[in-house]
UniProtKB/TrEMBL annotation:
<dbReference type="InterPro" id="IPR011262">
    <property type="entry name" value="DNA-dir_RNA_pol_insert"/>
</dbReference>
<dbReference type="Pfam" id="PF03118">
    <property type="entry name" value="RNA_pol_A_CTD"/>
</dbReference>
<dbReference type="InterPro" id="IPR036603">
    <property type="entry name" value="RBP11-like"/>
</dbReference>
<keyword id="KW-0548">Nucleotidyltransferase</keyword>
<dbReference type="GO" id="GO:0003899">
    <property type="term" value="F:DNA-directed RNA polymerase activity"/>
</dbReference>
<keyword id="KW-0808">Transferase</keyword>
<protein>
    <recommendedName>
        <fullName>DNA-directed RNA polymerase subunit alpha</fullName>
        <ecNumber>2.7.7.6</ecNumber>
    </recommendedName>
</protein>
<keyword id="KW-0240">DNA-directed RNA polymerase</keyword>
<dbReference type="GO" id="GO:0006351">
    <property type="term" value="P:DNA-templated transcription"/>
</dbReference>
<dbReference type="Pfam" id="PF01000">
    <property type="entry name" value="RNA_pol_A_bac"/>
</dbReference>
<feature type="domain" description="DNA-directed RNA polymerase RpoA/D/Rpb3-type">
    <location>
        <begin position="22"/>
        <end position="228"/>
    </location>
</feature>
<dbReference type="InterPro" id="IPR036643">
    <property type="entry name" value="RNApol_insert_sf"/>
</dbReference>
<dbReference type="GO" id="GO:0003677">
    <property type="term" value="F:DNA binding"/>
</dbReference>
<dbReference type="InterPro" id="IPR011263">
    <property type="entry name" value="DNA-dir_RNA_pol_RpoA/D/Rpb3"/>
</dbReference>
<dbReference type="GO" id="GO:0046983">
    <property type="term" value="F:protein dimerization activity"/>
</dbReference>
<comment type="similarity">
    <text>Belongs to the RNA polymerase alpha chain family.</text>
</comment>
<dbReference type="GO" id="GO:0000428">
    <property type="term" value="C:DNA-directed RNA polymerase complex"/>
</dbReference>
Length: 326
């Protein structure tokens, strides 16, 4: 297969920050219509791969149903939940966090009154949640999670702190507000173009993180395509603890390492524990050792033995070394 090497020769990517939520990314140079194709491709991919943090579980002290009211609070349950859903969160170094509001009236409850067991940032701290008009305690417990874990239901949430009706919410938030791209031609050579991406977020994710996340997923998918087409790569031997070379057939990447851990048919508990620690591919799992896996919260010996058994069925094991980057 013969490639035209002059199609792409990107050598510069710059990010210019306009404000806290908006930046412009400049990629150069490009030839002809490839610039427009890649601009549209990156725009669509960023919308698909963007993530946010949202409230998945919420319970309010002395609440009975979604449309009921609370004594001493002007808003009903539905209005309070609607106000909470409009708060923009960012959780640092974790995929979930428990949030608490506990205020004694009369007062105005705002987003800045939220406390957490993890380090969080609230983008709109002045957002009003409820108005308390008498001396009552307004007590709310919430769980904020990463949007990639939207199907996980916390069965123990009902018994935490106090017993009350649990409201499970769906993710309707979008972290990306706007993405546009435009092309600039050079005056000296109109065949050479620059691509500009104008990206605006709601603050739950930075523009730079959004762009890196997009490129990460593109690389993952294209690596898989390259293995199917049998593109060769150097220095991709896999060695285990016994120094045995594994899967060194013509220096081709093993596509099994790029597959999701869901292909191992793990239990829901084991799968969720691994994903919460950013282990999504089989290749990312086999480089871990037993001590690293045991340190994962809620990942016990039963889960460890399950992983080792399923990897053995695939001809793999833990603590392998992969000399090429996944």
């Amino acid at each position: 297969m013969i490639f035209n090497k002059k199609i792409f020769f990107i050598n510069k990517i710059n990010i210019k920050k306009i404000n806290k939520f908006r930046s412009i990314i400049r990629i150069e140079p490009f030839f002809n219509s490839y610039c427009d194709t890649i601009g549209n491709f990156l725009r669509r991919t960023m919308f698909l791969t963007s993530f946010c943090y949202y409230i998945s579980h919420i319970k309010i002290y002395n609440s009975k149903c979604f449309f009921s009211g609370i004594k001493g609070v002007n808003e009903d349950i539905s209005s309070i939940i609607k106000n909470i859903k409009n708060i923009i969160f960012r959780i640092h170094n974790s995929s979930f966090a428990y949030l608490i509001i506990k205020k004694k009236g009369p007062c105005i409850v705002k987003a800045k009154d939220i406390f957490s067991d993890k380090k969080i940032s609230i983008i709109n701290p002045d957002k009003i949640i409820a108005n308390i008009n008498c001396e009552v305690i307004f007590f709310v417990l919430m769980k904020c999670i990463h949007s990639s874990y939207k199907n996980i239901i916390d069965k123990n949430f009902k018994n935490k702190l106090f017993k009350s009706k649990v409201f499970i919410l769906k993710n309707l938030n979008i972290s990306l507000l706007n993405i546009n791209y435009y092309i600039h031609k050079k005056n000296t050579n109109k065949k050479i173009k620059k691509l500009f991406l104008d990206i605006e977020t709601n603050g739950s994710i930075s523009v730079e993180c959004c762009f890196k996340n997009c490129i990460f997923y593109i690389k993952k998918y294209f690596d898989l395509l390259f293995t199917i087409l049998s593109f060769k790569i150097n220095n991709n031997n896999i060695i285990n603890n016994n120094n045995n070379i594994i899967n060194n057939n013509n220096n081709i990447i093993n596509p099994l390492f790029l597959r999701s851990i869901d292909n191992l048919e793990l239990s829901i508990r084991s799968s969720n524990c691994l994903k919460s620690n950013n282990i999504f591919c089989i290749g990312e799992l086999i480089v871990k050792n037993e001590i690293e896996l045991i340190k994962i919260p809620k990942f016990g010996l039963k889960s460890l033995n399950e992983v080792k058994k399923l990897l053995f069925q695939k001809g793999l094991s833990l603590n392998m070394t992969i000399n090429y980057e996944l």
